[in-house]
Write a structure and sequence with these properties.
By secondary structure, chain A is an alpha/beta fold. Chain A is built from 17 helices and eleven strands. By secondary structure, chain C is of the alpha/beta class. Chain C is globular, with a radius of gyration of 29 Å. Classes of the chains: A alpha/beta, B alpha+beta, C alpha/beta. Chains in contact: A-B, A-C, B-C. The interface between B and C is medium-sized, with 19 and 22 residues.
């Protein structure tokens, strides 16, 4: 059974990881037809026309990003794949790479060709060591087959591709921090401008794209913009892989056309809630976006519909929160994550995430005070828009979302010194001594 | 929140790349136009070689890429997966982030603590296990999950963990 | 110069160059804006966020015309988010609000965040009272704290003997780490961990292995890094702060001394002024405590038989004057010689030679006591461009190519080294270092080129470089007479083929040619040399060869110079300018030239002698009994003169030895009269640094009881000898200098504020003549003796600084690992070095920067002049393992 219209269509094909199987399904046809044959600008144009937007979280138009690379620059150019997948709730790139590494390689070749790059790096989060081995095998196969190399597929276009393993830092999903890390520095974000398209890796023009974004490219190049636009909405074209986690009956990755109903995703595709639990809240785009109450479940999974509800499609990490989960507890968990992952470069994020997490700990443990709720809101506001990179915003937005929709639970904590409900605590309390 | 600083543990005074590692080092260095990029990959080579990164290993990496050793120290301590202290044979890294937590990670961690008699960041006296809470492993759909070394184990519960520990000698 | 743009900040419109950052434009608009993470010396970081402001541009209508509000002012489209001023360049028409509700709330928020984990332990913090965090909390902070959670805590650490770290106070602005990297090139500090656990420390928390400059402490805006030597010594408001000129080297840094009572408690840099801004080296920051030393002389001493007896100043002056008068009467003015004076202010240097020439009538004055063979008084100036507007430290930082000839800048010119390092790190400057040792700037991390010249082949390499430069043709715009002189040189250089270059200098012809090519091609260039040349056995030929080379490289042009020379002391350049040389008068007129003498004869009312003898010849004459009286100004001749045996003999033989000193040095102990004098910080005056910047040196505290400024001593003796000197202050002397000395006209103390005045008038004509090729050094036994300055040890003063002497430890002989093993020695052994005149025994240190076939011993402390005088191309010594119980190489 097909699990999705495009990237997930054949993903469970046995042996897809191997070059043979991949080629049998039409793999590398796009590259063969394009490299050395289609002008690079045309490749950019078709990607622009397809409406493809960055699938890592920010949703920036991919073709436009590519077109920012200065044409006349004498410097080498780099194409970098952001495979640092670390936004809590997101696990799509892992499955995509694990099962279909050649599609990523082909996407990187085409992207590299479009921007005039001859070297690509795939930056994988440190925990993905086994994925690195899988991708390395695929790269070796492709190299051996003459697909990668000084004369890729006999096109005269040279393209070398390497994997690079991170070592445990969420911040490296931020593109400039990723480049810092790839250059061997502490993974801290850099000043923009200059943007990576102008001065990225080794101060050379660089495009950083997410795995899912790059994997869409061969399909777009092969079948054209209109083909891709058969899915999705005008502004949110194409498909998106959503990672669903939490207490639903069938968690996992689902590729759907953009604009797909979140309600249908949860209730039909995922089979609804398990263990008799009820839906309380849903985080649609990875833990950094504001959560929505169950009432907002029937919202389209596309950039615009989510924005209209005050949240974001983000990375597509859909976290389902049930009615027996304490929102204060859940928010503390999220905030603690950002505190742990703050790189420490800027003051608001470094200190603010610590402070919020301390306040939430106090609230959750029943020693909160009236003023704490407003304090949390104000600290979040003092982080939002004032931090060096988006990590600060990522820490502040969940707080704002939770306070907006679930303020009553916070007030309950202050007043009654305890949770309204807390399944997790009850379960922990029940562990055998 | 208390903070336990990374206090260096001694380790050997000097280290040199083994012959096996030398090939890897050469391969790593060949991948980048700028040597510095090899820092993380070389730290991995060293950690895979010696299990952790004693100061001498950091010096060796610094020397290999021609960087000040303080610089490499700063890099190594930034990333959570580099072990600046020795770890047990099996490094149990339990994800505690939201999705896993919703699925019972806290309970699972508590169970491991009791079973192994060690807490976060601690190693069993026999050197067999080091237990650690970690943040999101990108296995949210399979929560609760745990990485043992680099191996993913998903959809865990107490019984599955007990069975797994039996297998890890 | 980029074009000017208009920016309006809090309603004040100013014009600034396009690209100026908002924080800098705010300074121009006189709007106070706080900055932590991006001080001026470092590129903007945008990390601390304290400088957030609101930024907007005028709204434009469809015709791109500004939309006007009802009151006729343009409507501004404000950006939705606040921006960091330190990273936002201004654009024409930009509006900035620093005090709007949005900006103020954001800034207050950042301020509050900065205090979240700060311990607020101001009462026990050395920074308290001058802490930027404290000040900004006062200006922008809340009046109460909303943070009552447990704070994240770190343990405090001593990072070596200088730096105390209290990480809890740290605001992670990264200034220290970046300064250590980008300006010092030391990389001793790094950030550990991340997020709220980010902590600044060293590799593995080891003591800092670095220059110990303490600039990390200086740039720390809070009390996270404080100085152990100053710890809990004073509160800043108890200190009188005086800005003066540091006296540890020729760079002339501005230093802010913190004085309480009669004690200098600390020294700091001077952000926003001076050649150095916040920078100081370890000596400048931690070495000034020698002024407080308990063994300062407090009474004049007069010899009575075998012993020096305390005397009053009047007695000592009367004694000195009477003895001088007697000797002059019996043996004539030629029997008196004045030596030393590098460490004096220019007013004192001027009076010292005026006393010699104008009162006593002796021609023998020379400040250059260390040199083995004397260089003409104006030769160094000629090699630096003859007085043409020269190289500044700023130009050095902005240079593309720097050639350092035979000098270890770390020991001799730390600020120059910092300028080169910062130029490399921030601007991609390339440095070429010609030095036998792999000195700091020659290390691979600075990505320069190291011309590892054989010891003794310095002149040969200079000639080879000149040949390589001339092979490229003459620099464009070379004046005709210079061009023909350079053409004429070619013949003398023809023999320097690539093969000869390789065999004689140890440096390949290709490397030499490439170095010359880089210098010639560079738009901004700098040629640096120092004591390695000035005190070289072949100094006269070397200095001349460098003058030739500088012209051939285009480092001197008709109008400018890119050459800088580093003298031994803070006012060595002044000594040359003030005529403390036997052949030149103040302002470089030749002493042998009657017309040049006439100005001074007229002003001083007496005939002046012609040229005299250099210091070494004068000392030799004293040893022979021809010179009978020596006046030594603040110079420990026994330790510093090239030929110690000769000095011994001269001191033995002289009928009168007068010494001005702060301490009873070994030389002073041999004198007949010792005048206790004021330290640099105890007197007024002006000094000339290596960029020929004349700076005011200010009195920070009263002279130690019983001590007088040198100029007062000279005046008192002059008056006692019947001269009609009536200087009330050093400034009176300066006025006379400004009246009489060419190049100083128009200058006054007032014109020297705040940052001094660079002398920049071509006054000495170039002289380009062939230098005889050196004979190939005879292959001989033994090791070349290499010496040089080091950071921590610099002679009698550094040994009296508690901090420096602790850092320096004992003087050591340094051998390469190969040489040590060849000699069968290991670290910790004692090595006996034997030269033609004697031997010294020192502990051995293994140092891989020293070439094989050589031994390196720092200048200070080791009494190398016991070994013999360098002659020819240097000095060879033999080394052997000494018996374990041999006496320690003594301190100077």
């Amino acid at each position: 059974m097909s699990r999705g219209p495009l990237l997930f269509k054949d993903i469970d094909t046995p042996g897809l990881r191997t070059l043979d199987t991949y080629r049998k399904g039409g793999g590398y046809d796009a590259a063969a037809a394009t490299l050395g044959k289609t002008p690079a600008d045309q490749v950019i144009d078709v990607v622009k026309a397809s409406g493809l937007r960055g699938r890592g979280g920010a949703g920036f138009p991919t073709g436009m990003k590519w077109s920012f690379v200065p044409k006349g620059s004498p410097k080498p150019k780099y194409i970098v794949c952001n495979a640092d997948e670390s936004e809590p709730g997101t696990f799509k790139d892992r499955e995509l790479m694990e099962k279909n590494p050649h599609l990523l390689i082909e996407g990187m070749m085409l992207a590299g060709y479009a921007i005039g790059s001859h070297t690509g790096y795939i930056y994988l989060r440190g925990e993905f060591e086994y994925i690195q081995r899988i991708v390395d095998v695929a790269i070796a196969e492709a190299r051996k087959a003459g697909i990668l190399g000084d004369n890729a597929m006999g096109s005269g276009y040279a393209f070398q591709l390497y994997t690079h393993l991170g070592a445990g830092a969420y911040i490296c999903g931020e593109e400039t921090a990723l480049l810092s890390s790839l250059e061997g520095y502490r993974g801290q974000p850099r000043l923009k401008p200059p943007f990576p398209a102008v001065e990225g890796l080794y101060a050379c023009p660089t495009v950083v794209n997410n795995v899912e974004t790059l994997m869409a490219v061969p399909h777009i190049v092969k079948h054209g913009a209109a083909f891709y636009r058969q899915w999705g909405t005008e502004k949110s074209a194409g498909t998106k892989v959503l990672s669903v986690s939490g207490p639903v009956k069938r968690p996992g990755n689902y590729e759907v056309p953009l604009g797909y109903s979140m309600k249908s995703l949860i209730e039909n595709d995922c089979g609804g809630m398990r263990d008799g639990l009820k839906l309380k809240a849903i985080i649609p785009g990875g833990s950094s976006v504001p959560m929505l109450p169950a009432a907002d479940l029937d919202t389209g999974l596309d950039y615009e519909s989510m924005n209209a509800k005050g949240t974001f499609l983000g990375s597509g990490g859909v976290i389902v929160i049930d009615d027996r989960t304490c929102i204060v507890d859940a928010l503390w968990n999220i905030t603690r994550f950002y505190q742990h992952e703050s790189c420490g470069k800027c003051t608001p994020c470094r200190e603010g995430t610590y402070w919020m997490s301390e306040v939430l700990e106090r609230l959750e443990n029943g020693t909160g005070r009236d003023a704490d709720i407003d304090l949390l809101a104000d600290v979040a506001d003092n982080i939002l828009g004032k931090s060096f990179c988006a990590l600060g915003d990522a820490a502040a937005m969940p707080v704002q979302g939770a306070l907006k929709h679930f303020r009553a639970e916070f007030e309950h904590h202050v007043k009654h010194k305890s949770c309204m409900v807390n399944r997790r605590r009850e379960e922990v309390a029940g562990v055998r001594a | 929140m208390s903070h336990a600083p990374v206090m260096p543990v001694d380790g050997p005074a000097t280290l040199a790349w083994t012959d096996r590692a030398k090939a890897e080092v050469a391969d790593v260095l060949s991948r980048y136009p700028v040597k510095r990029s090899a820092v993380l990959p070389l730290l991995w080579v060293a950690q895979n070689e010696w299990g952790w990164l004693p100061p001498a290993a950091l010096r060796l990496v610094a020397e290999t890429v021609g960087l000040p050793e303080s610089d490499v120290f700063g890099v190594a301590t930034f990333y959570t997966m580099f072990n600046l202290k020795p770890v047990g044979r099996h490094h149990l890294q339990v994800c505690m982030t939201l999705s896993c937590s919703l699925m019972g990670a806290d309970k699972l961690f508590k169970h491991l603590e009791k079973k192994l008699g060690v807490g976060h960041g601690e190693t069993t006296p026999d050197g067999r296990y080091t237990l650690r809470r970690v943040e999101c492993l990108a296995a949210c759909g399979g929560g609760p999950c745990m990485q043992v070394g680099f191996d993913y184990h998903e959809n865990l519960d107490e019984a599955k963990v007990d069975a797994l520990l039996e297998k890890l000698k | 110069m980029s074009k000017l743009v208009k920016v309006t900040i809090d309603g004040r419109t100013v014009e600034v160059p396009a690209g100026t950052l908002v924080t800098d434009a705010s300074r121009v608009a006189e709007v106070h804006g706080p900055v932590f993470c991006s001080p001026q010396t470092l590129p903007p970081l945008g990390a601390c966020r304290i400088c957030v402001v609101e930024v907007g541009m005028p709204k434009l209508d469809a015709n791109r015309q500004p939309v006007l509000a009802a009151d006729g002012t343009p409507e501004i489209a404000w950006m939705p988010k606040v921006q960091t001023g330190c990273t936002t360049p201004v654009a024409d028409g930009m509006h900035v609000r620093t005090a709007s509700n949005t900006a103020t709330k954001a800034r207050k928020g950042v301020m509050e965040f900065l205090l979240v984990n700060h311990p607020l332990d101001c009462p026990v913090c050395d920074e308290g009272g001058e802490c930027q965090l404290q000040d900004l909390a006062f200006a922008f902070g809340h009046d109460s704290s909303r943070m009552d959670e447990a704070k994240r805590t770190f343990d405090s650490e001593d990072l070596g003997p200088i730096v105390k770290k209290e990480a809890n106070r740290c605001i992670v602005c990264m200034r220290c780490v970046r300064y250590c990297d980008e300006v010092m090139g030391e990389n001793a500090l790094t950030a550990h961990q991340r997020g709220v656990h980010t902590e600044i420390s060293s590799f593995d928390r080891q003591p800092l292995a670095c220059e110990q400059c303490g600039n990390c402490i200086e740039v720390c805006p809070v009390g996270a890094l404080t100085a152990l030597p100053y710890r809990f010594k004073a509160r800043p408001w108890d200190l009188r702060q005086h800005i003066t000129v540091c006296e540890w080297c020729s760079n002339g840094c501005s230093v802010r001394l913190g004085v309480r009572g009669m004690e200098i408690l600390r020294a700091r840099g001077t952000e926003f002024r001076g050649v150095n801004q916040e920078y100081l080296c370890v000596r400048g920051r931690f070495g000034h405590d020698f002024v407080n030393a308990a063994d300062r002389l407090t009474l004049p001493l007069v010899r009575s038989g075998a012993a020096l007896q305390p005397a009053s100043y009047d007695e000592a002056i009367a004694f000195a004057a009477a003895r001088l008068r007697d000797i002059m009467a019996t043996h004539g003015p030629d029997s008196v010689a004045f030596v030393g004076g590098d460490k004096l202010n220019i007013e004192e240097q001027y009076l010292f030679q005026k006393l010699a020439r104008g009162v006593l009538g002796t021609p023998h004055v020379d400040a250059r006591t260390r040199v083995a063979s004397a260089v003409a008084g104006d030769a160094v100036l000629r090699a630096c461009g003859g007085g043409r507007p020269g190289l500044t430290f700023d130009a050095l930082y902005n240079a593309n190519e720097v050639l350092v000839l035979f000098e270890d800048l770390q020991g001799e010119a730390p600020l120059a080294q910092a300028a080169v390092v910062r130029g490399f790190r921030q601007r991609g400057l390339h440095v070429t270092v010609a030095h036998p040792r792999r000195v700091k700037l020659a290390r691979p991390r600075f990505k320069g080129d190291w011309l590892a010249v054989k010891p003794g082949a310095e002149l040969a390499l200079t000639l080879a470089l000149t040949k390589a430069a001339l092979d490229l043709g003459l620099p464009e715009g070379t004046p005709a007479d210079v061009a023909s002189a350079l053409e004429a040189l070619k013949g003398s250089l023809a023999g320097w083929t690539a093969e000869k270059c390789q065999s004689d200098t140890g440096v390949s012809g290709a490397a030499v040619a490439a170095a010359a090519q880089r210098m010639r091609a560079a738009a901004g260039k700098a040629l640096l040399f120092g004591r390695g040349v000035l005190e070289h056995a072949q100094a006269p030929a070397l200095v001349q060869a460098i003058e030739n080379l500088a012209w051939a490289l285009g480092a001197i042009t008709a109008t400018t110079s890119s050459v800088m020379a580093f003298g031994a002391h803070h006012d060595s350049a002044g000594a040359l300018e003030m005529g403390l040389t036997p052949d030149t008068l103040p302002g470089f007129g030749r002493a042998s030239d009657a017309a040049a003498r006439a100005t001074f004869e007229k002003a001083w009312g007496r005939t002046l002698p012609g040229a005299g003898q250099p210091a070494r010849a004068a000392i030799a004459a004293a040893a022979e009994g021809k010179v009978r009286a020596l006046w030594i100004a603040s110079d420990d001749l026994l330790a510093s003169a090239a030929d110690r045996a000769l000095v011994e003999k001269a001191l033995e033989k002289c009928e009168l030895v007068i010494v001005n000193e702060m301490f009873l040095t070994r030389t002073a102990a041999r004198a007949h009269v010792v005048f206790p004098v004021a330290a640099f910080a105890e007197k007024e005056g002006a000094t000339l640094n290596s960029e020929r910047r004349l700076q005011r040196s200010n009195r920070a505290l009263s002279p130690r009881k019983g001590a007088r400024a040198d100029w007062e001593v000279f005046q008192a003796v002059a008056q006692s000898l019947g001269a009609d000197w009536r200087y009330r202050t050093a400034e009176d002397v300066f006025r006379e200098i400004a009246r009489l000395v060419p190049g100083f006209q128009g200058l006054s103390y007032a014109t020297l504020l705040p940052d001094g005045a660079v002398l920049g008038e071509a006054r000495v004509a170039e002289r380009i003549v062939a230098v005889d090729a050196p004979s190939t050094p005879a292959a001989g036994d033994g090791l070349w003796l290499l010496s040089g300055g080091t950071l921590f040890a610099d002679g009698s003063q550094s040994s009296r600084s508690n901090t420096l002497s602790k850092l320096a430890g004992v003087s050591r002989a340094r051998l390469s690992p190969a040489e040590a093993s060849r000699l069968g020695m290991a670290a910790g052994d004692r090595v006996e070095l034997t030269g033609p005149a004697g031997a010294v025994t020192l502990p051995l240190e293994i140092d891989d920067s020293v070439p094989a076939g050589a031994v390196f011993v720092p200048y200070a402390g080791a009494e190398l002049n016991r070994l013999g005088t360098p002659g020819g191309s240097g000095l060879r010594v033999t080394a052997r393992k000494a018996a374990a119980a041999a006496p320690v190489g003594t301190a100077g």
